[in-house]
Design a protein that fits this description.
The protein has eleven helices and no strands. It is globular and about 40 Å long.
Length: 170
Amino acid sequence: MLALRGPGLSLETITVCLDSGIDAVRLVRDQRLHLLDTLRAIEGTNPDRDHVLRRHLDADQFQTLAAGTAALGPTAYYLLQIEWPELYRRADRLRTSGVPAADARVRRLADRMDELRRLVNGGDESLSDGVRAAWRDDPAAMSGDTAAPADQYRALTDYSKSPGEPDIQL
């Protein structure tokens, strides 16, 4: 736990990390190895992602999203580059193994993803709608992974939400 304080994570974030089963050693290693990614996440320097977002957000929404990410400081790296993808990997493993979407394990993952979404966008649902549309439109650009399978992303998004709920993506 002390090793996680070094990168500047709050005790609350560390507790969520440990409770979620996130590998603390990997977290510290990745944080050190990807300092440049940290700066990119904070500054929003992924031009492909920014282009897709600008198709779905107005200028004020785009600025609000950038400011919300920047306000998280170094924690943005952990949330956006480590925890978020790990939550999706876990949800996808549950989905592909046939676990029902209503299962408590899926709901816990979805709840945490929803918390992260609100943390980054301040709970602005119109901003969330735009970001969700950007992810559905081009998950490869949004994730920075040119091999991101759009159909798998969409299936996972649909799986991770309760009927009548909005999608849970950022």
